[in-house]
Amino acid sequence: MASKPTNDVESLAAAAASFPLLVYDHGEQPDNSQMVFSVADGSTRTFQVPELRNYRCLETPSGLVLMVDLASLQSSLWNPQTGQKIPLPAMDKPLPERCQCLLSDTVSSPDCLVLVSDLKQPQLLFCKVRGGSAWVSQSYDLGLYELPGSYSTPEKKRVIGNMAAVQGKFYFFKARDVIGVLSFAHSPEPQLEEIATFDAPLPTIKSDAPLCATMMFLLESCQELFLVCLFLLGPSFERIEDFGAYRMDFSKQQWCKLTDIGDRAFLLGPRNFATSCCAIEPGLKRGCVYYSYEILGVFDLLEGTCHIAGPTQDIPVLSREPFWMVPVLR
Question: Which residue ranges does the record assign to the KIB1-4 beta-propeller domain (predicted)?
Answer without folding.
Answer: 36-294
